[in-house]
Specification:
The complex is a heterodimer of chains A (369) and B (383). Helices cover 17% and strands 45% of the residues of chain A. Chain B is 42% helix and 21% strand. In chain B, strands 5-6-1-7-8 form a 5-stranded mixed beta sheet. A 4-stranded antiparallel beta sheet of chain B has the order 9-12-10-11, covered by helices on one side. The chains are: A alpha+beta (369), B alpha+beta (383).
Chain lengths: 369, 383
């Protein structure tokens, strides 16, 4: 059978699903695209058994096909072509021949039976939400997702839909981001944990428009017009994040985020790889940010103006954490609410965006000396 | 090149620190290492005033109490001892090109070839001694010799605040009149045995033929004879940063009982964690080693946040074990290790409220083990 397709359109479709292709699995078939044509619709699928991406487009054809081809080679060939019309020929379970005016490329096909079948999906609940909002929420929270397999429930982003709004929570036990939007409400009340890989991959692929989200016990699917993204869910109990957010605090420090972040960023090269800490020596009107690598003799100290409600407090944070937290905030003025040098510190924008609530919790480092 | 090895020993270190913390103890018989309530255990250190009553370290407290009932018995502020030890080390590291800390109150330094910079060894020793005294109010004795073994004997020769320098070539003569127990490594048992054979002075050993000792004691005997003759290590093996710590256990009979294996992993995790805490470092990699009875061996690592907690290591290693112990074959060996050691402070965890409490328990356990031995107290799996 034969079909014709524009090279750039095909490239876009292939690129969209390519992130799910894996070369790390022991199942070598996962290095492939599954290409299907039925009723004039071409569908490309890729999966690493954890996430699953599927993209469809109309093509000019009279036949049907199911082909399994090496993803990287096919994408590389198509990517290298100019914006032209391709005629692709399929020889059953044998090869794809890509013809265009100047030449042809032959890509071998593997048996379509070898491609792992995807799990049966039982997703009864459905909601709709704008892709642009989801993308933003993922970007704001994903950095705090745990990378430690020792606590599997935290290796994903908790998404809670309810009558009160939608909430995203990520934590690794050392920092936590809780982002709530009260303007988007749902009749269902559910909490699902989306694995980190799905958050990062889908976050890049989400389009602006409305996304249809359906979910069941073990999978969740994000569907837009051109792309279907499915992931397995982490079926674990997410830790009780509300219980660790301090209700009361003793002091607060108001600081210009940009100035504070600049100082922290400049301090980063001076943070010892070993100790990896930034010290905040907070006084009434200014905070002294400092870092040192005593072994190598590097030392950095900087003063940043702030408004502190107490007299003085010294607290230390892991440099990388503090830097990441500050770079994920885009507000002018932020508030650090503190209890003591060994207790959780909450960081919030001084003025929240309308109907939104962003809260970051950062645990300090207890220093040896 | 002339070898110049210093051995610095802090005099009655624990007592000296206690006196800094509480100056009213000055001039009084102070005994550290006893539980003031139960009067059990042995002396860790005692002041020179207490030694006049016949007290010495390692003496059972009950006996000490009979000899010196008016003494001041202290439990010991071990955290402070470690802190002062670090401060002394900082001072010494300003001068010594090669420094090795042998224990909390003992340091070896190699000043070979430093005469042009620091002048005569005696002057340098006086300077170091003064600096430690002026900065920290800690008395120290220093021995100087051409090797570590003689330097250590020297530092013990004049105490407190003594400096003893053995001119190169005079080592044998210096040691000859000293009692054999002055040589480190000759304990009570060896001393009794050697005394019974007529060896009382180090000179007696030095004069006897080396074969006498090699036949009776093998390599140890040879070393003993050499050291009595004033020989010893002329270089200090500088401290190298440890990269990992591990414990292994080979089962007497290949093991199939999973609970027993888990128990073994638990105790090894504790041992590894304790040695980390002793060194004041944390680890970010936990390693399981598993050898089946057919000698197939696998090693698996998991990354964690920097920690030095028994429980965290055990949980990590248990997870590895449960994931990787897949064959129905008995197990010959199990090992628990940690790697990627760091000096980072402890990163607090919001979901582990128990951690802070456990850290305090662990430091108390370590303190007890330091004083009474590793088997004095065991941690239950429930902690």
């Amino acid at each position: 059978m034969k079909f014709t397709v524009n090279s750039k359109v095909l490239e876009r479709k292939l690129s969209k699903v390519y992130p799910a292709v894996t070369t790390k699995s022991s199942i070598t078939e996962l290095e492939n695209f599954l290409i299907e044509i039925k009723n004039g619709v071409l569908t490309v699928t890729a999966s690493d058994m954890e996430i699953f991406l599927k993209s469809s487009m109309n093509v000019d054809t009279d036949g049907e096909l199911v082909a399994v081809v090496k993803a990287k080679q096919l994408l590389d060939v198509v990517r290298g072509l100019d914006d032209i019309q391709l005629t692709i020929e399929y020889e059953r379970d044998s090869r794809l021949i890509i013809n265009y005016e100047k030449g042809k490329y032959t890509v071998p096909c593997e048996s379509s039976n070898a491609y792992p079948s995807t799990v049966a999906v039982e997703e009864e609940k459905e909601i709709e939400i704008e892709g642009a909002f989801l993308r933003e929420a993922f970007a704001q929270t994903s950095f705090a997702i745990s990378k430690e397999s020792i606590r599997p429930s935290m290796m994903g982003l908790l998404i809670e839909f309810s009558l009160d709004g939608i909430r995203f929570v990520a934590t690794d036990g050392h920092r936590m981001v809780r982002f709530t939007d009260k303007s988007r409400t749902f009749s269902t009340s559910e909490g699902k944990i989306l694995p980190e890989k799905a958050v990062n991959t889908f976050g890049k692929l989400l389009s602006d428009g409305l996304i249809n989200i359906s979910f069941g016990l073990s999978t969740i699917t994000f569907k837009s017009e051109e792309l279907e993204m499915r992931s397995r869910l982490i079926n674990q109990k997410f830790p009780d994040y509300n219980s660790v957010i301090p209700v009361d605090y003793n002091f607060s420090m108001k600081v210009n985020r940009q100035e504070f972040h600049s100082a922290v960023k400049r301090m980063m090269p001076f943070v010892s790889n070993d100790i990896n800490q930034i010290k905040l020596d907070i006084g009434k009107d200014f905070v002294v940010v400092s870092a040192s690598d005593t072994e190598k003799g590097f030392e950095g100290t900087e003063r940043v103006n702030c408004e502190f409600t107490g007299d003085s407090l010294v607290i230390a944070f892991k440099g990388q954490y503090l830097n990441e937290v500050l770079s994920h905030l885009n507000h002018d003025s932020i508030l650090l609410k503190l209890i003591s040098p060994s207790k959780a510190c909450t960081i919030e924008p001084e003025v929240q965006q309308e109907s939104q609530d962003l809260l970051i919790l950062l645990m300090p480092i207890r220093t040896v000396n | 090149m002339e070898r110049v090895i210093f051995h610095l020993d802090l005099d009655a270190f624990f007592v000296s620190v206690e006196r800094i913390l509480d100056p009213t103890l000055e001039g009084k018989p102070v005994i550290v290492g006893a539980n003031p309530d139960s009067r059990r255990g042995v002396i860790s250190a005692c002041s020179y005033e207490a030694r006049k009553y016949g007290l010495h370290s390692a003496m059972p407290i009950g006996q000490a109490y009979k000899l010196c009932p008016n003494g001041i018995y202290l439990r010991g502020s071990y955290g402070e001892y470690a802190r002062y030890s670090r401060l002394v080390r900082n001072i010494l590291s300003r001068y010594a090109p090669v420094l090795k800390q042998a224990s909390v109150d003992e340091f070896y330094m190699d000043f070979s070839g430093c005469r042009a910079t620091y002048g005569a060894p005696i002057d340098l020793a006086t300077h170091l001694q003064k600096e430690i005294w002026n900065e920290l109010s800690l008395p120290a004795s220093i021995g100087i010799a051409s090797n570590t073994s003689v330097a250590k004997v020297c530092s013990d020769f004049h105490k407190p605040m003594g400096i003893t320098y053995v001119i190169p070539g005079m080592e044998r003569e210096f040691l000859a009149p000293l009692p054999i127990e002055a040589l480190p490594g000759i304990g009570k048992v060896t001393q009794r045995e050697l005394n019974a054979k007529g060896f009382f002075k180090l000179g007696d050993i030095a004069r006897a033929p080396v074969e006498y000792f090699t036949i009776a004691l093998g390599k140890v005997g040879q070393e003993l004879w050499e050291r009595a003759n004033g020989e010893g290590n002329t270089v200090i093996s500088g401290e190298h940063e440890q990269k990992s710590i591990s414990k292994e256990h080979t089962f007497g009979k290949d093991e199939t009982d999973i609970d027993k294996m888990k128990g073994r992993l638990f105790s090894m995790s504790g041992e590894v964690a304790q040695s980390l805490r002793k060194q004041g470092v944390m680890a970010t990699n936990v390693i399981l080693k598993l050898r089946y009875s057919d000698f197939t061996t696998l090693t698996r690592t998991v990354k964690i946040s920097p920690d030095d907690d028994d429980k965290i290591f055990y949980e990590a290693v248990l997870r590895l074990f449960e994931k990787n112990y897949t064959r129905r074959v008995s197990v010959r060996l199990l090992g628990v290790g940690v790697a990627n050691l760091t000096h980072a402070g402890y990163q607090e965890d919001m979901f582990d409220e128990q951690a802070g409490k456990r850290k305090r328990v662990l430091s108390a356990v370590d303190e007890l083990r330091d004083r009474f031995g590793d088997h004095y107290i065991k941690i239950g799996a429930g902690l």
